[in-house]
Structures are given as C-alpha cells and as structure tokens.
Amino acid sequence: MNHDAAAPIRLVKGVGPQRARLLERLGIITVRDALSYLPFRYEDRSSPGKIASLAYDEVTTVTGKVVAAEVVTPNPRRRGLKIFELTVSDESGFLKAKWFNQQFLKKIFKPGQTVVLYGTVKRTYRGAGFEMLNPEYEFLDEEDAGDPGQIHTGRIVPVYRITEGLSQKQLRSIMHTVVQGAAASVADSVPAGIVRRLGLPGLQESLRNVHFPAPSLSLEDLNRGVSPYHQRLAFDELFTLQLGLAAIKKGEVREKGISFSPDGRLTGALRERLPFTLTGAQERVIRDILSDMRSPVPMSRLVQGDVGSGKTIVALIALLAAVESGYQAALMAPTEILAEQHYITMHHLVEELGMKVLLLTGSKRNRKGDVIASDGADIIIGTHALIQEGVVFEKLGLVVIDEQHRFGVLQRATLKKKGLNPDTLLMTATPIPRTMALTLYGDLDYSIIDELPPRRSPVITRHIPEKQKGCLYPLIEDEVKKGRQVYVVYPVIEESEKTTLKDALTGWEAFRMKFPHLTVGLIHGKMKTAEKEEVMHSFKEGRIGLLVSTTVIEVGVDVPNATLMIIIHAERFGLAQLHQLRGRVGRGSSQSHCILLSYGITEDARKRLEVMVMTNDGFRIAEEDLAIRGPGEMFGTRQSGIPDLRIANLIRDARLLEVARREAFSLIEEDSSLRDFPLLRKTLEDFWGKRIEMVKTA
Q1: Where is the Helicase ATP-binding domain positioned along the sequence (predicted)?
Q2: pLDDT at 185
Q3: Closest CA to 336 of 99, 74, 603, 556
Q4: Domains of the chain
C-alpha cells in the first residue's frame, strides 16, 4: 500500500492509534517523519559468526538458542544483589548474558527461544568462556529466518532507538512497510543540476539504503553515518537549512536601513579616557562595524571574541557612534545579572561624556518605559524586557545583543521592529566552531577579535580532587602576600535541603575565619545592583583581598590584580562557563592560576576538566564542548529559531555543510524567491515552519 509522505503514521499498516501514540514519543507523526527517523546503528546478521570464534572485548552480535534462564544470588552476604543469567548456544559453544537486579527478565526468556544479543564479549568470572553484561536483546521467530523480506536477520539489519511499549522488531517492521510504500513516491526537491554536479545518489535510493542497506555497503560506513546514502540525506537537510539563512540575508540586503554619520566626538573622548590602547584586532573589528553603520543596508554582524579580548569596549564605541549620529542605542543581555554587569561597566564612562544611560530589566520595567519614549535616554541596557509590549523607543538606531546564542531569531526580530529598521550587532564571548557559526549565524557577517591585549600570560590551570583541597589555603596566602587578589566561585548562594553542594554564604563565613587579616567580600545574584556595584568597586580598588562569588562574576569584570581563581564544584559547571570564569584572571602582567576543585566526578565532567587543564584556547575548548555535548545542547538550538537537525551531524558533516552553504547561497543569489523551484520552496517552508518569516524576498 503506497502512502503519501504527509500522511499520518497511524494509517500505515501495522500501526493504528495505540502504536501511533508510542511513535509520537519518538517524534514520528507523519510518514515523512518516519523516513527521517534513521537507525542509530546497524548489525551484520547476514552470516553470523559462531560463538566458538568470538574474541574478548569485541562488540558484536550473537544469535543463539536459549538453553537456561535463571535468577542467582552470587554472594550470600549481599542478598539484595540478584543477577539474571541467560545461557545461549549455537552448537559451537555457549555464551552467558547477565543483567543485574532485573529479575523480571525471567518471565520474558524461555528455553528454546532464538535470541539475538548485542554487546561487548567479556571473559567469564572463572576465566574460561564468554559472557556479556547487560547486552541489548531481540527475539527471532522461526519464520524470521525464512522471511522473504529478510527484515530481522540474514542481512545488514537496522537498529532504531525505541520507546517503552514498542519493541525493536515491531518498529523495524513498521519502518519496512513505510519504506516499501512511501520511498518511491517522495519527490526530490533538490535541483537536478546540483545533484549531478556533486555526484549525489538519488533521494529514493538513499531512503531505501539508509533504512535497509544493500549487502554491498560497508558496515563501518553505515555505523559512522558516512555511506553515500547517509551523506545525500544529510546534504538535503543542510542545504534546506542554509537556503533559509541565505533567504534571510538576501531579504535584509534589500531592506532600507539607516546611514549613520558618526563624527567621532564621543568615541574620541572615550578613547582619551581609556587607560589602555586598543589592540589591532579591536581596531579592525571597529572599522568593520563603522563601515556597516555608514552603509544604507541594515547591519547584521556577529562579533566573536574570547574572554578578555575586549568586546565590551568595541560594543561601547558602536553604541556611542549611533548616539553621535542622533539615534538611541540599546544593548540587550540574556539575564538581569549580565545586563547589570554591562550597566556597571559602562555607565560611569558614558555619563562622564554627558550621555544618559538607563538600565531596564523585568523588575525595573514600569518606571523606565516613559523615559525611553520621551527620548530621555541615549543608551538603554536591559534584558528581554526591552522587547516587551509597552516599551517604546523614540529613535532606536542600533541594537547590540550580547551572548547572541541565548536569544532566538524571533526575539532579535521583535527588538528590531522597535526601531527604524535598526542596525544589529551581535556579540558572543563563546568561541564558536566554524560549523556552528555557519549554522546558527549563517545570515550574518562576522568578525573575530583574535588577539588578546599585550603582556598577558596564559592562565595555568590545575584540577584538584576534594581530598587535596588543603593545599588551597597556602596558595591563597601566597598570592595575598604578593599583594594579589583572589576569586572563589561557588555553584549556589546558600545551603539547601535539595542539594549537598557547597554554597557561597557558608564559604564566605569559613574564609573570614580562616583569613581574619584579610577583607573577604561576598557577591551574588540576589543582591541589589547598587550593592553589587559597591562590592565590585571595592574589589577593583583593592580594598577586598578575597572575593567569594557565584557565577555573577562570569562576565564583564576586569581586575588586573586578581591572579587566582578557585572554582568550587568545578565538575558542576559547563566548559563554556568554566572558560568564562577563568577569564576573570590573567588580565594583568602577573602569572595567574585557576584551580578546579571537584567533589566526585562523571566521565563527561572528567573530560571537561581535562580540556580546561590542557588548553586556554577558547576555539579549541568550543570544539571539545561540541564533541562532548553535541550542538543542540551546547547552543540551545531549539531556542535559537534554527530548526532541529534530525539527520546531519555538524561535527561529522562539516565539509558537507560548507558545500551545502555554497550551493544554497548561490541559488538564492540567482533566484531569490525560488520561483523556478516551487517544490524546493515548499520543502523550505515545511522545514523552517513558523519559526521565522520565511522568505522576505518574495
């Protein structure tokens, strides 16, 4: 029975309403969703090896008959520990499979059943024979071996991620029905010229082979997702993604923006007040920004800069250039803490020049809206409160958005609508791997501040487990004796019944007792802005020797005399956050140190801390973060306005992304509204959905 790709999955033979609800948990609602739901691995069951020829420590598939199934208590002293033991045989030998505390399996396995086990082959406890611990399992019926379609055995078999209530065999059978009934009717929307030029296989052929591969395909290529057929489907997804970004960029180029004419009056006065000279990289990025601002096309530029590279001063010069030209400028940060940090850093500098700066956050909104509307403010710093209804700008010309990846495309668009098609400058202190930049920010021009201020030594980083924490006190004492200052960062403000984490308030009390001769300061997110400003000012002036803090100091604090950063419960922080925190030291000419103190550690946390010890390079750290966590989790792509990628992998398919981007931008340049490719335009609209105004160029 043939199915249209848009048909509900419940109409497919063997599905029905109950299974449709289970499939929905996997994100499968339509036939098209099912075709895009690829196996996460493949097993070669075409000629299963004999148990007698297995090798220790290999990951493999074993097929055999159940000989015995029993629950055992291996240690009489540990009566709570039960092991379900399964013995299977294929006539060449025996293999034991063990599952800990899963006695219910006794009801599932019966002698005589044919079972497929997938796992790592280990030596048995007594040293002879083979066993698997907690292997994946699947039952085979007698008819499976003689099945003319050979779905479950006798071939390279796809293995899908499943959900409770739906077995591997059931899902594989549904997928086989879908592929047989729908793959042939899926229309290929990618222009034939592109498919030919890149030597890509056909779409229908690709769908069939990623789900039920031909015997000639390499099992290794299939499992790595790099078979020609996987690459074709990944290309289609990346191409459609980049088409949307190209269309947005093309639409913005056609829009009429503001031609700013800054006279240098305010920016020149600011430069004179700065106690340092800007780096060559900062000057280059400022030239890029001012060139964009003078152009009548609205600026959409991303500025990337590692911690300590000086993005804030670059943003401030852009804000003042807009004010010089007779416009208001806004800076939007994702959290109140970050907005307050920018306000603390900027308002003294700017108000000395005679400008009015306002802080607008959720808690302060009602009092400030009128002032913005009446043109009483030149620069407005705030959170998402800036884009809320009722906040009206008199003459908004420039929007600077900090930590751009935390804002969605729609939020950016809403803020732009508050002005006269204002220029947009996006900043991030999170170095972004090129593949991520081309995906999340593909519609933007971007500049990188790739130079740190002179006379800065890389921060030396060490990881210390809890049992060695006693060495921290002499380290602190040593730095203080040299006249230096210290940060100690905690993950939470105060003790809680819900967690056993060390907290800042308790830590502050402990450090005051340990170092009575020192002024120990405390700063956290629940303090009022004025209180935080006073503490930071005292620390910057050197009146506080040791500052106990939460991550409130993650961004925007520049204290060159602070040379030691201790991060408590470092295992609880993400890589980007650890890198940001470390960036608070190493800002002067003296050698700085960062100590990562851990209390228990997972494998992922160990990897993160190893990366921190190994390198200070933010781009290297970002690449490692991407490898550990994956793009969705790392950058919150669900919030970014960018559609989820179901097939492509930004690490594996980096080269393919570059190719897809080139082809997409070239096509939009030739046919901006895709008039000659109606099917492709429909695919584009389906892919992007309502996340974004699709093609402004139509």
Answers
A1: 292-449
A2: 86
A3: 556
A4: 47-154 (2.40.50.140), 265-449 (3.40.50.300), 460-615 (3.40.50.300)
